[in-house]
């Protein structure tokens, strides 16, 4: 009987795992990501991305967005919790600026269906990692 209760408790704890869902990318999105960061060197993550770098955004998957700054520098934004529905191609990522126009760690973004104007998900920015072409 005691062994049975230990198994039940163990199963309950295992089902409450907080491990993140694995990132799933289509082969086309993986190729796009590799094209954006290929040949570039990862730099130390930064906590805020100046707003003028946020004009050219590429959605890779529900956990990853890449901001391009010309051909020699990109910023890979990692999202906490994943933005549900972001990777489907029919939604848009909306942010609101409070106090600064920059995108910063912890800032909440919502995923909106532009056809219905309804929110379909939300997440927060975790970090922004620059990738820079050598010599740039």
Kindly describe this structure.
With 136 residues, the chain is an alpha+beta fold. It has one domain (41-136). Helices cover 18% and strands 37% of the residues. It contains 2 helices and 9 strands; from the N terminus they run ααβββββββββ. The chain has helices at 2-15, 27-37, and strands at 41-42, 48-49, 57-61, 64-69, 73-80, 92-95, 103-104, 108-113, 118-132. Strands 1, 3, 4, 5, 6, 8 and 9 form a 7-stranded antiparallel beta sheet that branches. A two-stranded antiparallel ribbon has the order 2-7.
List the helices and strands and how they pair.
Blueprint lengths: L1 H14 L11 H11 L3 E2 L5 E2 L7 E5 L2 E6 L3 E8 L11 E4 L7 E2 L3 E6 L4 E15 L4
Antiparallel strand pairs: 1-9, 2-7, 3-4, 4-5, 5-9, 6-8, 8-9
């Amino acid at each position: 009987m005691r062994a049975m209760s230990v198994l039940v408790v163990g199963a309950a704890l295992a089902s409450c795992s907080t491990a993140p869902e694995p990132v799933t990318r289509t082969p086309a999105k993986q190729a796009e990501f590799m094209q954006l960061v290929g040949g570039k060197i990862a730099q130390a993550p930064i906590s805020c991305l100046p707003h003028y770098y946020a004009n050219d955004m590429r959605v890779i998957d529900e956990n990853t967005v890449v901001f391009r700054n010309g051909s020699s520098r990109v910023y890979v934004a990692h999202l906490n919790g994943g933005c549900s529905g972001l990777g489907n191609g029919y939604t848009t990522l909306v942010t609101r600026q409070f106090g600064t126009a920059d995108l910063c760690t912890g800032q909440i973004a919502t995923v909106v269906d532009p056809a219905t104007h309804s929110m379909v998900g939300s997440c927060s920015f975790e970090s922004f990692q620059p990738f820079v072409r050598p010599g740039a």
